[in-house]
Amino acid sequence: MASTANFVERMYGLTVAFDAAMFIGLEIESITYAENAIHLSLSDGFAIRSMTGIRYRGTELGNPREDRLPVSESSLMGTVGTAVAGAVRTASGGLALTLRSGAVIEFEDDSDQYESYSITTPDGEIFI
Prior knowledge:
The chain is mostly beta strands. The protein contains no helices and 11 strands. β10 and β11 form a beta hairpin.
């Protein structure tokens, strides 16, 4: 019988072997803000929490916007209820989600000293 124990992995940037396709088809269920984090809850027990900020565009060709913590204003909430159409590991080891609406949300490892974001899956958590 396979082990169902949750794993915890710490890394600097996602590895080339990371399969971002696991996000395709998931829906953004909620976005919450705290002074030190932005938390995206996705369907099927997935979540992404940024401890530094999130870069996003309303469309694939739109002007990028960056929400840095602490956030005082954001239009990212408009993505709630939208499903992920594409997901890739970026060249710098970050994660980019393209939504069915055309919006793009990017998470980058932009801190040399601390975790920048974490990914929660049904199998465990990855800290980047």
